[in-house]
Amino acid sequence: MSSLPLLSIITFLPSFGALLLMAARWASPGANPGLDRGAKYLALVFTTATLVLALIALDQFDPSSAAFQLVEKHQWATWLQYHLGVDGISMALVLLTSALMPICILASWSIEKQVTSYMTLFLILQTTLIGVFASMDIVLFYVFFEGGLIPMFILIGVWGGARRIYAAFKYFLYTLLGSIVMLVALVVMAITANTTSIPDLIAYDFPPALQHWCWLAFFASFAVKMPMWPVHTWLPDAHVEAPTAGSVVLAAILLKLGGYGFLRFSLPMFPDASHYFTPLVFAMSVIAIIYTSLVAFRQTDIKKLIAYSSVAHMGFVTMGIFAGNTQGLQGAMFQMLSHGIISGALFICVGVVYDRMHTREIAFYGGLVNRMPVYAAVFMLFTMGNVGLPGTSGFPGEILTMLGTFQVNPWIAAGACTGVILSAAYALTLYRKVALGPIVNPKLENITDLNTREWIMFVPLVIAALWMGLAPTMTLDFTKAAIEQVAVQYGPAP
Amino acid sequence: MIDQLIYSLSWTQPECLLAGLALALAVLGAYLGDRSAGLIAWIAAAGITAAGVLAVMFQTPEPQYVFSGALVIDPFSASMKALMAFAAAVTLLLASDHFSGSSDKRFEFGVLALLSTLGFFVMASSNNLMSLYVGLELQSLAAYVLAAFRRDDARSSEAGLKYFVLGALSSGILLYGASLIYGFTGSLAYDRIVENASSGNVGVIFGLVFLICGLAFKMSAAPFHMWTPDVYDGAPTPVTALFASAPKVAAVALLIRLLYEPFGDLLRSWQQVIIALSVFSLVVGALAALVQTDIKRLMAYSSIANMGFVLMGIAAGGQAGAASALMYLAFYVPATLGAFAIILAMRSASTPLTKIADLAGLAARRPWMAVVLTAVFFSLTGIPPLAGFFGKFYVFRAALEAGLWPLVVFGALATVVGAGYYLWIIKTVWFDQPGPAFDKASGTIMVVAAVMTVLTFPVLVVGLGAVEAWAQAAAAPF
Description:
The complex is a heterodimer. Chain A is mainly α. Chain A contains 20 helices and two strands. In chain A, strand 1 (69-75) and strand 2 (81-86) form a beta hairpin. Chain B is an all-alpha fold. Chain B has a two-stranded antiparallel sheet with strand order 1-2. In chain B, helix 2 runs antiparallel to helix 3 (37-57), helix 3 (37-57) packs parallel to helix 5 and helix 7 packs antiparallel against helix 9 (202-218). At the A-B interface, helix 1, helix 5, helix 6 and helix 7 of A face helix 17, helix 18, helix 19 and helix 21 of B.
C-alpha cells in the first residue's frame, strides 16, 4: 500500500493538464496552429497518464473485498470532508472513464475551432467524472456531479451542430432541475444523520416517511441523468448536437451517473422506499425499452437512432437494479460497462463517416462495405453488441437483468424481452441501410477506409467488447463483492 | 467624561481614520483641483483598506460598547467591516481607472466613497436606533450624490434623483418604525429594547415591520426593489459596482443585528416577514432578469435574487442562520465585483458598452475575459465547484435546520430559473459569432478581474474552512 494519494492524483491530473493548457493559451494569444496541435498531444498525454495511474490503482485494488479502498480523508470545513475511496462498482467505472478519455481525445482530432479551449474543457470534464465515482462524501459527490455540467454545456454549445444552443440549454436546465432537488434532499439527510460520509449514511436507518421524499428527490436527479422515460427527451438533442467525442462521453460515461447513483444511494440508503417504488421504476423501464426502441426504428439520423437505443438499454439497467437481487444488480452493472464501450464505439463509428461526408442522414449512405470493408466489419461488431448477440459484451448484461427481474416479476421480464427483438430490428435495419447493398450515392464513391488514428481508437474497443462478451466472469467477479453488499443492504422485499 | 471619550475613540480607530481622511482629502482636493482625482482615489482606497485592517486587528471577543452604547465593537462588526472595506476599496480602484480617461474626472469621488464607507462602518457597529439611522443616512446621502456623479448625463441625474426620492421615502418609513418602537419600549438602545420587546406588544411588532421595510429598501429586496434597475443602469458603472457590493453587506449586517439582538425573542413574528421578502426577491430577481438586454440591469435583478438567498439565511435565525447569510455574502461580493470589472472593460473605441449582445463571441477574441465571466456567472448561478454553490449550500442547510423546507424548495426552483439568464450570458460569450472588438483592458481591471476569479474557487485558494471559520466567528455574538 503506497502512501501516495493515488485517487486524488487520478482525479486531478487531467485538471492539472487543463491548467497547463490555459497557461499556454495565456502565453500565446491569438490564432496559433502550433499551439492547437500541441494542445491535442498534451491532452492525449494527460489522459493516457491518467489511464496508466488508474491501472496502477487497479493493481493495488482488491476486488474480493466489498470495503472502500484507497481511502483518503481530510477535513474540509466543519461540515464537509474531502473523502475519496473506491469499491468494485466505482473502480470499474473509474477504469471505464479513464480508458475512454484518450479515445475521446483521438476522436476529437478533427476539431479545428478553438482547439485549446476544447481540450481544456475536456480535461476538466474528466476530473469531474472520475471525481463523481471516487467521492465518498455526499457533498463532494454533488460538487463533481454538478460541476460536470459546466464543461459539457460549453462543449455542446460551441462545438456542436446546428441546433446546439437549444440542445445545450435543454441539457443544462433539465439536469440542473433534477439535481437541485437532490441537493435539498441531500442536506436534509445530512442534517438528519449528522454526517456527510456515504458509508455512514448507508449505515444510518432513515425513517420511512423521510426515505420516500428523499428517494423521490434523488430519483428526480438520477432519472434525468439516466435518462428514463419520460424525462429522456434532452438526450437525443444533446447527443445529436454534441461533437463526436461529446456524444461518446455523454453516452458512455455521463449516462452511468444515474445508474451509479441508484446503486450507491437509492438502494442502500432508502431500501424501504426503493421497495415501495419498484413497480413505478419497472413500469418506466419497460415503457422505455419498448417505446424508445420503436422511436429509434423511425429515426432518419444515425446519431439520433443510437441515442434512442441508449435510452432503451438504460431501461434494462434500471430494471436490473430495482430487481434488487444479485443477478439483476450484476447484470445492470455489466450492462452499464458494456454500454459504455458499445455506445461509445457506435458514436465513434458515426463520427468516422461524419468526418468524411458531414452528414448523418441514414438515406445518404448505403453500400459502405464496398469502399470501407474494415469499417463495415467494426460497425457490424458493435451493431451486434448493441443487439446483444452472445459473444459480444451486450449479451451477458441483458440476460442477467432479465433473469434477475424474472424472479421478481415475470411480466416485466417478458415485456423487456420484446425490447431485445425490437433492438435487433432497428439496429440491423440501420446496418443494412448504411453498410450493405450497392453504392447508390455517387458522393460515396471515393470514401476512404479507416486511417491509422481510427484504427488506434477501435482496436481497444473491439478487444474490450469481445473480451467482456467471451469471458464475462472476469468482469462479474470484479464487481461481485460490492454488488452483493448492495443486495444485502437493500434486502428482500418486505 | 474625557476617559470615556478616549476609550471610545480608541475602539473606533477605523471610523476616525475614515472621517479624518475624508475631511483631509476634501481640503486637498479643493486645493489641487480635479487633476488630483486619481491620486485621491488611490489614497482613499488605501485608507479604506487600512480601516478594514484596523477593524480586524482590534477585534475583540468581548463586545465593547462605546459612545454611551451607541456603537458596539464585536467580532461581528469587525468581520463585516473587513468585507465592506474590501468591496469599497476594490470599487475605488476600478473607479479611479474608469474616471481617469473621462471628462468626469473629479476628486469628489474618493471623498464621497470614504464618507459612504464611514456610513457602512457605523451601520455595522450600530447598537441603538439613533446610530442606525445616522449610519444609514450618511451612507445614503453619499450614495445619492455618487449615483448622479455624471452630472451632464440625464440618465445619471435621473438615477440620482430617483434614488434620493425613493430613499427619502424609505428613510421616512424607517423613522416612523423607530418612533413606534421608542414609544412602546421607551428606549432607543438595543439592550433596553430587548427587555421590553419580548412581550410581543403589537405596537412593537408594527414598528419592527416598518423598520424591516426601510432596510429592505436599502438592500433592494423585493417588493422594495423598484429603484434598483434604474439606478444601476443610470449610475456610472463603478458606482453601480459599489452599490451592488458594500451597501448590501452593510444593510444585511444592520438587519441581522437588529433582528437577532433586540428582537431575537420575536423570531416567530419577524420570520414570516423575512420569508415573504425572500420569496418576493427570488421571484422578481429570477423572472424579471430573463427579459433584460442590458447587463447592468441584469446585475440589478441578479442582486435582488441574491438578496433573496441572503434573506433565506437570515430567516433561519440563530448563529447558523447568521453565519450562512454572511458566507453567502462573502461569496457573492467577489463574484459581483468580478462581473463589474468585466463590464468596465467592455469599451469599444473608448465608448462604454452595456448590452449583453456586445459580449458576443468574447471567448474567441478575449479568452481571459470569457473565463472570468464564466467563473463569476456560474458562481452566481450556484454551480459547484464555484463559491456561489457553497453559499447556497450553507443557506439551504441553515434554513432546513430551522424547518423552512418550503422556502428552500422554492429557492431551489428559483435557482433553475435564474440559471436561465446567467446561462444566456455564458451562451453569448461562448457560442455566438464575435461582435464588436473591445479596447485593450487596463491593467487594474484585469488584475481585479483575475483576483475575483480566483476568489470564486474557495475550495482551492482561500479554503472553504477558512471562510466558514470567519463566518462562524462573526456570528458568534448571536
